[in-house]
Amino acid sequence: MKIADGVTSTALLTDQYELTMLAAALADGSAHRNCTFEVFARRLPHGRRYGVVAGTGRLLAALAEFRFGEPELAIVSKFLDTRTVEWLRDYRFTGDIDGYPEGELFFPGSPIVTVRGTFAECVLLETLILSIYNHDSAIAAAAARMVSVCGGRRMIEMGSRRTHELAAPASARAAYLAGFDATSNLEAARTFGVPTAGTSAHAFTLLHSGADGAHEAAAFRSQVDALGVGTTLLVDTFDITNGVATAIEVAGPELGGVRIDSGDLGVLARQVREQLDALGATRTKIVVSGDLDEYAIASLRAEPVDAYGVGTSLVTGSGAPTAGMVYKLVEVDGVPVAKRSSHKESRGGTKAAIRLARHTGTIVEEIVYPASAARPELNGYEVRELRTPLVRGGEVLADQPTLRESRELLARGLVSLPWEGLKLSAGDPAIPTTFVR
């Protein structure tokens, strides 16, 4: 997996303290103790009623490239002893990983990922796992909230210019997982197969200005000549009413779409729809963009909008840029261990999880219990196991779900939530999590 120009290893996408802990553990002999680490979120971000598991596919790809070659060893040898450097030279993860399937919902305390192996090999994966899951799950949760209120209209991810260049494709992937239809990011298409879409920029309209004034018609004509009448014209560079009239004059009533990127989008969408219909362009779509989030999208649900282009709010998690997941040691040589720090407690022992649903499909509860114990007896509910095997003996298992299959899983999951779980207002998690000792 290419990280940057000429760089393929993911081993340095980590925190130095993982390597210093490794060095100390190798020195005192504890490095080879069998351990279980778990990934979970103690709580959901403020205002969220569910989380979305995203990033699994990216993690499994990154795990295969987690190797220390000579360039990586040259960096870590600056602060590590020779024994640790030599240990890293031959490193590969040989343990097991289980996890909630990508696209699954999660709630506070859900054991989203379980990593088993020696302390040495597991501790090195903390930052890699958390950085991928925390980013992608935050974006997917924000995107899912937007999709749930868009009324089935087309959703386009347009946030590449508002995030890090290497985060942009991952953001597009997470948005597509959550139900977005397309992205403007072409690397997401190449790397993950996400469908793409694009419209036009104000710069293109301004390009056709001259000393004698603005030539909006010339810009529109050029775009239509190159891309066909199915293209989408940006009509708010100057005056929207004149822009719409000019667009239909140039392209005719079969114009594919117009985009509005500023102003009171609800009012403008109504005005533009009336104008388009009066001009005979009854099938011309209206695309709106410009600082949209789930609340703005919800407020536009009754307006004649055909598609939304979402950027900044999406790629920043719409106010929750991380999913709040942590990676904690929960078992050493079969003995449960737990952190007791105030407000940062963990629950010891390797865990399993099931989710209960009514016969209608509505989920009602998640139960987390010791993996070594029998599954709790339950009557009257449909029961579904949540954890699935991902890695065995360091090898990624075959037949992992495709991105499209994970997208379908999430769509089913959102439908299974109690109706109040889809509210945008702050409140308790959509379902409770019960912990069985």
Short recap of the structure:
The protein is an alpha/beta fold. The chain has helices at residues 16-28, 56-64, 70-76, 82-89, 119-123, 126-148, 167-177, 186-192, 202-207, 216-227, 240-251, 265-278, 294-299, 312-315, 403-416, and strands at 34-41, 51-52, 96-99, 105-106, 113-118, 154-157, 182-183, 232-234, 257-260, 285-289, 307-310, 325-332, 335-336, 351-357, 363-370, 382-385, 388-392, 395-396, 433-435.
CATH architecture classification of the domain at 16-139 and 320-347 and 387-412: Alpha-Beta Barrel
Provide mean pLDDT, rounded: 95
Q: Tell me the radius of gyration.
A: 25 Å
Number of H- or I-type helical stretches? 15
CATH superfamily heading of the domain at 16-139 and 320-347 and 387-412: nicotinate phosphoribosyltransferase
Strand line-up in the sheet with most strands? 13-12-1-5-3-17-18
Q: What structural class do the secondary elements suggest?
A: alpha/beta
